[in-house]
Specification:
27% helix; alpha+beta; 15 helices; single chain; six-stranded antiparallel β-sheet
């Protein structure tokens, strides 16, 4: 029984407790100390009125005025969990800091007043954080505010009533804010509250999964928004909440957590997929929400192991930075993981991870010994039909891999297709990030198949899922880009086993078109990954042993194997490398099969080619063989449409 090494910042944390927390060493005291450090580091960036927090970094698209509100609201959420979790014993300074800032922010005559809430405006997002924080700190803050400040707060939040929110998780910001207004006798529209909750029902796709608005938009917004806000709403609403609706939300959350627990590696890292990844350990928020709402299938020791593992993972990677700030990035600053709306204070939605502080110190999630997470004990495979994903993880190296055959974050047709490195790749993991070239350039070659043309590689774009069941999943797409009038379609089936994935592509393209397939991108800061190539295989390996391999099993006889390199294209490190295979297409429909490997297990990495193969068993089917000798027949049949 060992506790992982302490980070460079660990001197500011309590000593680890290997008896209570044998996997992470973290206890409630570590969460409190981290919250205190984050809040203290923000104080120098507050304006004189404490209503605007102007942090260093790129301004978000809503402008510096809105960014300043974001700094207050998101850190107020963290302060609220700290205040309420201590029963107000955290001390008067923190309470006064946010009470003073609130009074200034809602006063339209104050130099630091906040932007008004208008249709589809960023203050809608921040208003929900303010409302949650005011509810949770009611005895220590709201109840002690002067009447004039309460009136101005109600007036500012009341801008939500009758306003139009984006038809996405934003509908829940309206639900939360207006429910808080209802709780304090302020203006609200019960039809808007109910309408937002009804809209959430429209997006439910089963298995614990919501899409974030219409389309196939599956990502961590399930974790830090679509499941979290119903729990927070029920806390605000109290007796006003419909018991049947609350029960439905709890049942869905329970089902989601039964799956969400598989998204964390043994080192605590979440799978790196989707947008707003700068929120980092906010992925832990629904774990605490499940315990808070008595809606979790997880034992309390596993809840804390997963949540603390995520917090410790980033702490061990110098997050927050040496100034105690959360940057616009994953570990170091890396703007390609941001969105245009991301401002310098946006990362502080990470505050949601500290929801667990609302649970009393004697709650079992804080007192039960840590229990192993799923990835710690055995190899796992899990099909998720709603988002069209396969998860496969390996205990030997603690890596979780997500195979994507259903999520592209595009609105339904006839909206145009597009391509995003964080959504349309074939796979994501807890040990890697996708290549993110500068704006205007096509996505990198990693975890993609593309037709090459003088104008550049084709893109995956809209994903049409076929199935996700057992150890297999499949989808098809029309390559975006090169088109000379001939039919273009790529149908792909994936089968997973242990650390391995075999992809079988049915590629319909003109004769002579170069076809390129890429494996995982591995990245690090200290030195470029090592590269090796041979006949129809390529390997990229970091100095710590993390290995990405791509092996051509069928259809690559005339191909070229190489390892492509880049600088500054990856959130995991400055130097990145991707194994790639390229071969000419014979015309018509061609089957191609590749063994795709990501591993930190030296036994697997020693020779990734041994034992793998594929043979044609019919015009549209291959029998593929994994390195351990297991065989599977794969038929990537295109959708009849």
């Amino acid at each position: 029984m060992t506790v992982p090494h302490r980070s460079a910042d660990a001197g500011q944390l309590p000593p680890p407790d290997p008896d209570l927390s044998p996997h992470t060493g973290y206890t409630r005291a570590h969460w409190e100390a981290t919250a205190d450090r984050l809040l203290a580091a923000l104080r120098p960036y507050a304006g004189p009125g404490l209503a605007q927090y102007r942090l260093p970094g790129r301004t978000g698209h809503s402008g510096a005025w809105s960014d300043g509100l974001e700094g207050y609201a998101r850190s107020f959420l963290l302060a609220a969990f700290r205040i309420a979790g201590s029963g107000g014993a955290v001390g008067p300074t923190l309470i006064e800091r946010y009470a003073t800032g609130l009074a200034a922010g809602v006063d339209p005559r104050h130099p630091e007043h906040w932007p008004p809430i208008t249709d589809r405006s960023q203050p809608m997002v921040e208003a929900a954080s303010v409302a949650v924080a005011l509810h949770e700190t009611r005895p220590w803050l709201w109840d002690r505010l002067p009447d004039r400040t309460k009136e101005m707060t109600v007036a500012w939040l009341g801008g939500f009533v009758g306003a139009t929110a984006n038809d996405s998780n934003w509908r829940l910001f309206q639900v939360i804010t207006e429910e808080f207004l209802a709780s304090v006798g302020g203006p609200h529209d019960r039809a808007e509250i109910d309408g937002g909750l009804d809209r959430l029902d429209d997006w439910y796709r089963g298995g614990g999964w919501y899409t974030d608005g219409e389309g196939r938009k599956f990502d961590y917004y399930n974790a830090w928004a679509l499941h979290l806000y119903p729990v927070l709403w029920a806390r605000v609403a109290g007796h006003r909440a419909d018991p049947a609706r609350v029960a439905t939300h709890r049942a869905r959350l329970r089902e989601f957590l039964d799956v969400h627990q598989y998204f964390f590696g043994s080192d605590g890292a979440p799978v790196h997929q989707g947008r707003s990844l700068i929120y980092r350990y906010a992925t832990a928020a629904p774990l605490w929400a499940g315990a808070l709402a008595d809606a979790t299938p997880l034992p309390p020791g596993r809840t804390r192991r997963l949540a603390s593992g995520a917090l410790k993972h980033f702490t061990d990677h110098q997050v927050p930075d040496e100034q105690g700030l959360l940057s616009l990035g994953w570990y170091r600053p890396h703007l390609p993981v941001t969105q245009p709306y991301s401002g310098p204070a946006s990362p502080y939605w990470a505050s949601k991870a500290f929801l667990g502080l609302l649970l009393p110190a004697d709650h079992p999630v804080w007192t039960a010994p840590e229990e192993a997470g799923p990835v710690d004990t055995a190899d796992r495979q899990l099909a998720l039909p709603a988002p069209g994903w396969l998860l496969h993880s390996t205990a030997a190296d603690g890596i979780v891999r997500l195979v994507n055959h259903g999520t592209d974050r595009l609105p339904p047709p006839p909206a145009p297709s597009d391509d995003s490195p964080h959504y349309t790749g074939f796979a994501y993991s807890t040990a890697t990030a996708p290549e993110t070239p500068p704006p205007g350039e096509p996505p990198g070659p990693d975890n993609r198949i593309a037709l090459l043309a003088p104008t550049g590689p084709s893109r995956r774009g809209r994903i049409h899922p076929l199935y996700a069941e057992g150890r297999a999943a499949a989808s098809w797409h029309t390559p975006l880009g090169p088109d000379d009038g001939e039919r273009l379609r790529i149908t792909t089936a994936s089968v997973v086993r242990g650390p391995w994935e075999i992809r079988v592509h049915r590629v319909e393209a003109p004769a002579g078109t170069p076809v390129r397939a890429g494996g995982w991108a591995v990245a690090c800061d200290d030195a470029p990954p090592l590269a090796r190539t041979g006949e129809a295989w390529a390997v990229a390996r970091r100095t710590d042993g993390l290995t990405s391999a791509l092996v051509g099993l069928f259809g690559w006889d005339d191909g070229i194997a190489e390892v492509t390199r880049a600088r500054g294209h990856n959130a995991y490190g400055d130097h990145s490398a991707v194994p790639v295979l390229t071969a000419p297409h014979p015309g018509g429909a061609q089957l191609l099969a590749t063994l795709v490997v990501l591993t930190a297990d030296p036994l697997v990495a020693a020779d990734v080619r041994t034992g793998a193969g594929a043979v044609l068993v019919s015009d549209d089917a291959l029998e593929v063989r994994f390195p351990d000798g297991t065989t599977e027949t794969v038929t990537p049949v295109p959708d009849p449409g």
